[in-house]
Amino acid sequence: MEQMPQCPQCNGEYVYHDGLHFVCPDCAHEWAENESKTQDEEKIIRDSNGNPLQDGDSVILIKDLKVKGSSIVLKKGTKAKNIRLTDGDHDVDCKIDGQSFSLKSEFLKKA
């Protein structure tokens, strides 16, 4: 029996083949048969200007951001040094004024 790949989105194991695509019944994600997992692993995270970001870069906020669950507001122009890239919706981890934050790269520009 052919070994089916796991879903690249949710890592579900109940994937089935539907013609030209693989389908995950858990999250309804579909992907082409010829797409390899290495393409997902090589995902390039870009800032608001389209510049690629890497671990250790410094970035600047381009917009005031309210922090959920607190009264803190991160001001436009605040610089975050030594960022770390992660998977997920908020793809940049950094420290600003000694506090850790997870930010979206669309609100950052490379310094």
From TrEMBL:
Residues 3-32 form the Protein YjdM N-terminal domain. It comes from the Bacteria. SUPFAM superfamilies: Prokaryotic SH3-related domain (SSF82057), Zinc beta-ribbon (SSF57783). Residues 45-111 form the Protein YjdM C-terminal domain. It holds the Pfam family Zn_Ribbon_YjdM. Belongs to the YjdM family. NCBIfam families: phnA. This is Protein PhnA. It comes from Mesocricetibacter intestinalis.
